[in-house]
Amino acid sequence: MKMRTAGVLVLKTFLLVTFAAAPLTVAAARPPNIVIILADDLGYGDLGCYGHPTIRTPNLDRMAGEGMRFTDFYVAACVCTPSRAALLTGRLPIRTGMAGSEQHRVIYSKDTGGLPAEEITIAQALKAQGYATACVGKWHLAGETSDAWPTRRGFDQWFGLRWSNDMEPAGKIQKPGSMSLDPDPAWWSLTLMRNEKVLETNANPHTLTRRYTDEAVQFIQANKRKPFFLYFAHTYPHVPLFASEKFKGKSPRGLFGDVVAELDASVGQVLETLRKEKLTENTLVFFTSDNGPWLVKELAGGSAGPLREGKGSTWEGGMREPGIAWWPGKIKPGVTTHELACSMDLFNTSLQLAGAPVPTDRVLDGVDLSPILFGDGKGLRDAMFYYRGDELFAVRKGNFKMHLQTAPGYAGNRVQEKLEQHEPPLLFNLASDPGEKFDVAKEHPEVVADIQKVVAEHQTKLVAGKAQY
Ligand code: MG
């Protein structure tokens, strides 16, 4: 009898252990999917959930309502190339040689450089963990003769453009001098890439967002049974602007509003695909933009809302962006956080979630955002460094931001950009003055001294990477 009882107990214990362990084993074997959706030149004030009065973004608003909205989310640079390099590597562009310079701020097609092979991208780190990886959209981390294409930097597949849409060789007709609203598409035929091959040399710019979205949806559906990383880097609302027929002429904000509404619908389609495929409980989606609005483009550019200046500038409007995190069941819904966070943190966060080893042989500038996303973590990030090209212009610590130099937004060929040195530095309290209007350096000499110490320490330790372009 005793033997029998013991036998049953052993069997029960075995069954319990086996069946209790089974779901854990499956969970451990299936780290979360990660989707990063990046808009291009979308400003802090361009979404409904960030206060735009007339641009309608119901899908992003819903994403924020179901997830977490950051009020103080930054990118690591105020123009495309360095910002993207930082997001994918978790490192300040000055360290990777991807910062550019005052004269040469982003990669152009004739450049030979690109994201260095020794850098580790999120895609490489996750691919090593068995993830399927895709880049859909704009790359802008390689010149034409460089080998730094997405497929050489950890992505299994790539569908999209090599650079910004205004940098495309424009077929036979010369580009107009200015980026007018709704330009003739004949000026802007685009070269669309599929992996390392030219797929089309005259892709229709009106259909780009729709085609990107179809590609992203197909990638998710094709990889729903294994972990995947999708880096979905939209071309718009970078100028020249094009919307598809379905969206054109609909927004009170004009073509810019139409284009943002189409991006919003694209986000909605990605989230809907995750719902349909029952992947929401195991997928982190993060939405942001690569830099602030291109204000000199006037109605074709976006809005930084209450923030000062835009793209190309180290004023808040150049580098503070919408940041929305979504993971139903894991991230508490409807939370607005004022914690300081940065696009480089997506590197550490993604690796941590994937169970990938975080590199220890290099300086990383990102932090793992999990304590903020999944709990009430605070104060993870001490300071924020604002570089313009390879020069440090400003530093934020707590609510205070100190400017060593300032410059207006990215003027392209239309306005001369005038740099100003500040000795003594300017100081703004971003909590009471997010628009950086009232210099309070004289009232807070101790804060200036404290941030100057942070600058000195940063600059003493900094090893700048070899310039890549
Ligand atoms: Mg951009």
Question: What would your notes on this structure say?
Answer:
With 469 residues, the protein is α/β, with parallel strands linked by helices. It folds into 2 domains: 351 residues, Alkaline Phosphatase, subunit A, CATH 3.40.720.10; 77 residues, Arylsulfatase, C-terminal domain (2-Layer Sandwich), CATH 3.30.1120. Helices cover 28% and strands 19% of the residues. Strands 1, 2, 3, 4, 5, 6, 7, 8, 9, 10 and 11 form an 11-stranded mixed sheet that branches. A hairpin with a 2-residue loop joins β5 and β6. α2 packs across α7 and α6 packs parallel to α7. The N terminus is likely disordered. The structure holds magnesium ion.
* N-to-C span: 81 Å
CATH-defined fold name of the largest domain: Alkaline Phosphatase, subunit A
CATH class of the largest domain: Alpha Beta
Radius of gyration, in Å, reads 23 Å
Q: State the major sheet.
A: 11 strands, mixed
Total helix count?
11
- Could you report the average pLDDT, rounded to the nearest whole number? 91
What are the bound molecules?
Answer: magnesium ion
Which blocks of ≥5 consecutive residues have pLDDT under 50?
A: 1-27
CATH architecture of the largest domain: 3-Layer(aba) Sandwich
- Work out the count of structural domains: 2
Assembly context of the chains: single chain
CATH H-level homologous superfamily name of the largest domain: Alkaline Phosphatase, subunit A
Number of strands: 15
Proportion of residues in extended strands: 15-25%
Structural class by secondary-structure content: alpha/beta
